[in-house]
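Q: My hope is that you can spare some time for a protein that puzzles me. Underneath my words sits a plain record pairing an amino acid chain with its backbone structure tokens. Those tokens are not coordinates but codes from a learned vocabulary of shapes. Thank you; the sequence and its tokens follow:
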Amino acid sequence: MIVVVDERSLVTSGYSAWFAREGITTTGFAPDDFGDWVSTVQQSDIMAVEAFLIGECANRSQFPHKIRERCSAPVIAVNETQSLEHTLELFQAGVDDVVRKPMHVREILARINAIRRRYGNGSGDTGTQVGPIRVFSDGRDPQVNGAEFSLPRRERRILEYLIANRGRRLNKAQIFSAIYGIFDSEVEESVVESHISKLRKKLREQLGHDPIDSKRFLGYCINLD
């Protein structure tokens, strides 16, 4: 899930629609609401965020520090006008990248992935390879042993999220937040079990074993070593 912060609701809803076409869930905030949320949200919720996209808003240079106090997800600032001074101020404030509109969401996703690779959360320019599985974050289907492995959007996003967080055990709430968005109250967390059950069956058929380990009350992790 990507969190978008902008003082214009039309902008946050626009990003939501654009990212949805790529299979990415977003949650939009007005600046004042985001400032309160990032300081008080449960750790499991903020750890489900894959990146923060900070648009036009007052005092946005304060947000990177607040985010870094809670998590290490990439922070990208979006400028609508070209200003070297403003860009340097944003980097000084701690953002990982500054982009200028208009920009396709796939380029934003590519920049997010590049930042994650620098943090050690990915490998190479052609996706993340773990064992026999390679996943992408630009909407493409994953690969298993070099062959395309077609998955529905939700199952694909769950596989990407499990691999991005390999080595960590993720509970249903974290997976739900990453796939559906923190404030999507119309879908129950139990739907995660259904998606994972279908994903496990397909992976078992393809790999000959089930790579997703689950423990009651603790959650899920993927083992591809």
Remarks:
- The first helix runs from residue 9 to 20.
- Residues 173 and 189 are 6 Å apart (CA to CA).
